[in-house]
Every structure is written in structure tokens, then in C-alpha cells.
Amino acid sequence: MSEVVKKTRSIPVYLKKRGIPPSEQNIPQETTVIESLDATSSITTIKRKDSYTEFLNTLPTLQHPSTYRVECVSTSLDTNRLMCELFSKSTMFGLDMEWAPTFVKGRGENKTALVQICDAKSILLIQLSQTKEIPIELGSFLKSRTKLKAGVNIRNDGRKLLRDYGVFTNGLVELDVMASTSQSPKLDITHRRSLQALTGMFLGQHMPKGKVRMSRWDQRVLTPIQQRYAANDAYASYKIYEILSGLHEKLPRKVKLDICHLEDEMKDFQPQKRARLSNTYTYNDKQSIKKPYEKGQPLEPRKTLSPRSTTTIVKKAESKQDSV
């Protein structure tokens, strides 16, 4: 066993008692404790958020293997060709999305600009901001129930695709839920279940989140830094799903994999209304979206019945003179 390291932090000035010497204040100080287990174990017990950050910083930076084939496409023709060439035989995928940030208060989210797909050998980056539509093969892939797509918060990503392009995404697997049911001792490292946290726990690599995350994903040509960031996100989702699948197979009691099919969740909505959903009504799992206007619903009466322009007054005056 390695020795225990203790680090104390001084109490802020605004918490100190005024007029009393520091030696007599008797204020308990907070202690950060990091206990390292045996050398054969890769688990580190972390009891503070800042210690968790230190743990991530000790890990090597995430990078997909150099043997992976990475393609970035901006046309429907190239997308259809590579989807058939790369992913026709695979059944497990990592899926992620990116879109340009909104810095204007009150303005809604921008449309999905990039979709990343990863399997055991390839990563495909599809610029929907340039195709302006969902290519045929990508639409078939998203609607497929047998091709499982894993990610963190992947269900909400699928709903965003539905709002932006009116396409259903089926076969969705939430990695955070899958990790919670894996009974892995690595889950004691932190309570967080973000993609960055799962990457640190199960891949032993650090996924840095810098300024590139808030960059313009809808520009015509993505920079090499953007492409590398997007490819690593999809790769991490795929590898975590692969590891968690192996852990689930070793469980003494099998846990049913929770697979979400958005087409089943949205079957109560009429087709012409599904693509217009936003964030203020209720789905089956209590997430809010906006209910669209229903045909036949009475309109609110006008507050004033006065003429809205001088043209209306002139026409009324002319009609009175004609009647006389």
C-alpha cells in the first residue's frame, strides 16, 4: 500500500471570526484525502472535485488509434458511398453530434452541423451543415433498430435530430445508464457520468474540453483540430460501449440492455408535427417540448376592434356615400 497524502486548505477570510486570534478560533479545516490502492489496482479513491481534476490531468490524452480510417464528408453522395463501404457489416457504433453555439440571448439552438459515427475500424464525420439534409444511407442507419448507437445523453441527441431534420433515431444506448448497471468498482472514482468521466474511468485516458468545443461547427471546412476532437468523441463512445458490454456479460445475473427507439416514443404524435417539436411540452420520460398548434383550436380574440389602417376608414366612408 502506498502512503496516504493529506493536503489542508485554509479557511477563507470571510469565514474567520473577527477579533479572535487564529490560534483560538477553533475552526475545523477541510482535508483532501487521496488513497492509492495496491499497485495491481488502477482504482483511486477520490473524495473531492479538485482531486478528481488532478486525477484526470495525470492520465494520457485521448487519441484514437492511428490504424483507424477517418473520413470527413460534406456531400450526400460521399456520405451514401462511405456509409455502405464502412458500416454495412457492423452492429455496434459510437454516435455523437456537434452544432454551432448560440451567443444571443433568446435565440434558439442552431441546427445539428456534424454527426460522428465510429465502429471498430473507421470514423466518419458527416457535415450536415453542408448537405442541408439527411442523406439516404444516414437516414437508414439512424432508423435501424439492429444497429445500436451508444453515447452519453444520446437520447436527447436523437430528439434534436428529430427537431432539426425530422428523422427518427432508433437503437439508442445510454452509456451512463449502462455504466451504472455494470457493477464496476471503477465507478467509485467519481459520481460523474459524463463522457469525459467515463473515458477516464474505463479507458484510462483524459478527454480535454477546450475552446474547440464552442467553435463554429457549421463552417464549410473543419479545421484539423475540430476533426480530431470530433473523431475522439465518437471513438470514446464506441470503446466505452465495447468495454461495458464485456462487463455486462460477466455479471452473475444478466441485466437487460435498455435500448431506446424514438419512433416508439413519438408514435402518439402526428407525422407533420413531429419535426416541429421544441423544448416546452412533455415526452413519455417527462422531458419538456413545445406542443404545436392543433387544427380547429379557437384563436384568441383581438383586444381591440378599431381599424388597423387608414385604408379601412376610407373604404367605410365611400360605402356610406354610395348608400346615400
UniProtKB/TrEMBL annotation:
Q: Which UniProt keywords apply?
A: Exonuclease, Hydrolase, Magnesium, Metal-binding, Nuclease, Nucleus
InterPro entries reported for this sequence: 3'-5'_exonuclease_dom, 3-5_Exonuclease_domain, RNaseH-like_sf, RNaseH_sf
Keyword set includes ATP-binding = no
Q: Where is the composition biased (Basic and acidic residues)?
A: 315-324
Q: Which CDD domains match?
A: WRN_exo
- Please tell me one Gene Ontology term that the record gives under cellular component: nucleus
Q: Which Pfam families match?
A: DNA_pol_A_exo1
Task: Specify the 3'-5' exonuclease domain's residue ranges.
Answer: 70-249
Top-rank lineage group of the source organism: Eukaryota
Its GO biological process annotations read: nucleobase-containing compound metabolic process
Say if the entry is tagged with keyword Kinase: no
Single GO MF annotation: metal ion binding
Question: Where in the cell does this protein reside?
Answer: Nucleus
Question: Where mainly found?
Answer: nucleus
Q: Where is this region: Disordered?
A: 279-324
Protein name, please?
Answer: 3'-5' exonuclease
Q: What is the lineage of its organism?
A: Eukaryota, Fungi, Fungi incertae sedis, Mucoromycota, Mucoromycotina
